[in-house]
Amino acid sequence: MKARDELPAVPGGGVPGLPGGGAAGALLGVVLCGGESRRMGRDKGLISRDGRPWALLMGDKLAEHGLPVIYSINERQLPAYSHLVPAGRLVIDAGAWPGPLNGLFTVHRRFPAHDLLLAPCDMPDLEAATIGRVITAYREDKAADFVAYEHRGFLQPFCSIYTGAALAAAVQRPQDGSLRGLLRQGRIHLLTLPETETFRNLNRL
What we know:
Elements: E1 27-32, E2 48-49, E3 52-53, H1 54-63, E4 69-73, H2 78-82, E5 90-92, H3 100-110, E6 115-120, H4 128-140, E7 146-151, E8 154-162, H5 164-170, H6 179-183, E9 188-192
Parallel strand pairs: 1-4, 1-6, 4-5, 7-9
Antiparallel strand pairs: 2-3, 6-8, 7-8
């Protein structure tokens, strides 16, 4: 595995081999699949609903909004995910950051010109309208570093948008290991989500 400082950026920051950014422009969808899945006991991204793996279901949800989609995985997952996703859409964790920060920062290092909409593979109930609202706010508020929901009194780090400029600054600073801590380092365009199950994480079946 390459050290994080050796991870090459795509020349110009583009996404070779992926469809164009559509209406969302520089925004790239990232499906986070590299967690340990300890509570589930198996790779959550490979669990199927209606015959389609959760990872691909989440990718479908992002693609419906015109986003090119990247899948963030760890090195052990490469054989399984290579059968599901073209190689150009897979980014293997390549840093020493803790938890989901590793996936987020690794994708940022690979595609530094893009802003990233981060979604986990284990939120199969995430609604199209919820994704649409965060994209709309991102387009309208060009001064925001991040666009995120507040849900049940908590800052929600998923279905959130992390701008490339904010990530470029953050990757140089020590982190507390949490996505919420990262979000608090910049200007957040905060959205409030009505009571819903759209952010329900499925850790057990």
